[in-house]
Amino acid sequence: MTPWALAGLLAGASLALALILKVRRLGQLPQDSWAIGIRRPTDPLRPVVGGGGEDRPVLTAADIPDVDSDFVADPFLLHRDGRWHLFFEIMERKTWRGCLAVASSVDGERWDYGGVVLREPFHLSYPYVVSEGDTLYMVPESCRAGAIRLYRCSEFPLRWVFDRVLVEGGFYDPSLVWHGGRWWMFASDRSHALHLFHAPSLQGPWTAHAQSPVRRDDPRAARCGGRILEFDGALYRFAQDGRDGYGARLWAFRIDRLDEQGFQETEVPDGPVIGATGRGWTATGMHQLDVQRRPDGGWLATVDGNAQRIVTNWRAGVRQLQAGWFARR
Fold first, then answer.
1. Distance between alpha carbon 79 and the CA centroid of its chain, in Å?
2. What's the first-to-final CA gap in the chain, in angstroms?
3. What is the pTM of this model?
4. Is the preceding omega at residue 157 within 30 degrees of 0, hence cis?
5. Confidence of residue 184 (pLDDT cuts 50, 70, 90)
């Protein structure tokens, strides 16, 4: 091989390597890795890690044998027939849509996966389970269906059937509470506005509150992040902080007034209730909390956490490179 041929070969190899490295850099994307944990707080508004052991999740995507999943998130608790039931979202890798599933436990520590309970041709998350009389209902987030939808349990805990549309429109994370002889429902929209509705029963009719939306253009506090908590004679709403990315932390607000004429809430002081810890499975975010009374009088809380990591998507890198090349032409 002549020196000129060798030089050309080395130049071509260098160019190819530089191209590969650029595609790799352009294709580096953050990937969420949400998981679900359990805590036993003494104060339901401060669900810090208790005891001296290492804080670990009780459910991850690796615990789901029947769904190829990226992560699990949005946990809600229900105590029934002497067992705890945990309803949560599974993010399916192939469709990038969420379906809803359940796990059960006697002690709240060791959980047995039960299976998928609800799947639709659109994304589902945030399986908010409530009861009215002897009937169990679920009001999940179904924003991509363009409506808030009510599902009724036909065979506990695995079978849920569509009942009716409650409110038309694309709303996130509807959160309900029975108060003052009526149902109240908070839900946010894409503009970071918090809407409030009320109804005499879950089936409706649902009416927008006179002050709704009760928050406008507020990414720090508009989107709900878990079950409305009843504690010491007051109601508390948990809200996701979306100012610096999705799911970083959760704030608590005491509801001071909730009736058909007025609404008022006050932020609970001393910082967020939960948030990114910078380490472990909650390193980059926490955005959901459901706190329930245990039969012994204590508290059981479920939270989710994220340890976001950077992965290389080669196809995305090639697309970015092509887009930049065509933009320069």
1. 20
2. 37
3. 0.88
4. yes
5. very high
